[in-house]
Write a structure and sequence with these properties.
about 400 residues; mainly alpha
């Protein structure tokens, strides 16, 4: 039963990734077709991101009221309807309207499924799930490119993705009874950083406090913001760095940056197997050090070919960080608050993805593209400091509770 539900969650993660990269792939044709200014694409992106952040922040309360299964069903239904709305949209105004439910649906299902998997499944599933998200994010532009190259119709691309989402809606509807059964039958308990079972200790009755008042939560939020900021910044400005600083042509630069995503996707697949032997904390630390090494390689005045290695190393380093931090949430802060904190973490992540790349763009536009690598190094270094400080706080808290 748990296996069937897990397969559905895997499908949901592919579905979650499919719309994420559609707008960028389709916008050059959409802009011409709708006679819209080029900056309108940025407005649509911001509207989707804003909806995602809002739904992530309130997801804890909604999920507690209705449960992960029902919220996932409704959220995917919202994204399916929104994508269908893109297909029918007669003007940019309708695209902006449809962007709101697209973002709201994505944020709720992302936070809900991440917490559900962190609570009821082992760590390797979290890594593989985010690998499947990468598959969905890669397939989206491929599907869109097929229709754009065939009949120059971005609308048909959105129609096909919407159809895939509606199929998942039906699957989720018929799987609703499974969610509660898996919860009741689940025997997976969450180990702490040292491998000890902690449900009983962490979830015992405590004073009513806000999740953000729990020690270490703010450090975790900063870590998520910085991680996603780094991931998105390398994605957005990596090619420009290679062209302006390393002297590559645009086509070569784009292909080299694509290897960065290969590193992330392949790294998460490999991480899933490594989690059988190595703890999340060790994988997070190793990933951060590896990513920092890759960024330093980009900074050094080495031949251009080393930049390809730098991007691949950054991708491999980033690969385990996000899924392992997500899976650690119930272990770090207790099952009682994990769903709300998971929503906050996803909101912080989307905030980093949305706002940090434009900030870096503003900085490099007033200085030089060479500052790009310095910013990446600083962000990763601060993320390491926050992560290690969080580990120290949790270790101290654990020792104090053992002494009692």
């Amino acid at each position: 039963m748990a296996v069937y539900l897990l397969l559905i969650i895997y499908l949901a993660f592919i579905s979650l990734g499919l719309p994420d990269s559609l707008l960028g792939a389709a916008w050059p044709v959409m802009q011409s077709d709708l006679s819209a200014p080029i900056e309108t694409g940025g407005i649509l992106f911001m509207m989707i991101a804003f909806g995602t952040i809002i739904s992530s922040l309130v997801s804890g309360r909604i999920l507690k009221l209705f449960g992960t299964g029902k919220v996932t069903f409704v959220s995917v239904l919202m994204t399916a309807i929104a994508l269908l709305g893109f297909y029918f949209a007669p003007s940019v105004i309708w695209l902006i309207i449809c962007a709101i439910p697209l973002g709201l649906g994505a944020g709720a299902v992302d936070a809900g499924l991440n917490n559900y998997v962190a609570t009821h499944y082992k760590a390797h599933h979290m890594s593989w799930l985010h690998c499947f998200w990468g598959i969905g994010a890669s397939l989206g532009p491929i599907i869109m490119a097929y229709f754009i190259s065939g009949d120059n119709s971005w609308r048909n691309g959105y129609l096909v993705i919407a159809g895939i989402q509606f199929v998942l809606v039906l699957i989720l509807f018929f799987s609703l009874p499974l969610w509660n059964k898996v919860v009741h039958n689940s025997t997976h308990s969450i180990p702490d950083q040292n491998g000890d079972e902690i449900y009983q200790m962490k979830d015992e009755p405590i004073k009513k406090i806000k999740p953000t008042q729990i020690k270490g939560v703010k450090l975790a939020l900063v870590s998520f913001l910085l991680y996603c900021g780094v991931e998105a910044t390398v994605n957005l400005w990596g090619s420009s760095f290679l062209v302006n600083i390393k002297g590559l042509n645009a086509a070569t630069a784009a292909s080299w940056v694509s290897m960065y995503f290969v590193g992330i996707t392949a790294g998460r697949l490999i991480t899933g197997f490594i989690t059988f032997k190595i703890t999340n904390r060790t994988l997070i630390r190793s990933g951060q050090i590896t990513a920092l090494t890759g960024a330093v390689i980009l900074l050094l005045p080495l031949p251009a070919f080393f930049s390809l290695a730098g991007f691949i190393i950054i991708g491999l380093g980033l690969a385990p960080i996000f899924p392992c931090m997500l899976h650690e949430t119930p272990s770090r802060f207790g099952k009682k608050h994990s769903q709300t904190i998971m929503g906050y973490q996803m909101a912080a992540a989307y905030t980093g993805t949305t706002f940090m790349p434009p900030v870096i763009g503003f900085i490099v536009s007033h200085t030089t593209m060479g500052v790009f690598t310095i910013c990446i190094i600083i962000f990763i270094a601060v993320m390491i400091l926050c992560s290690e400080k969080l580990n120290s706080l949790l270790k101290t808290s654990q020792l104090l509770k053992q002494e009692r």
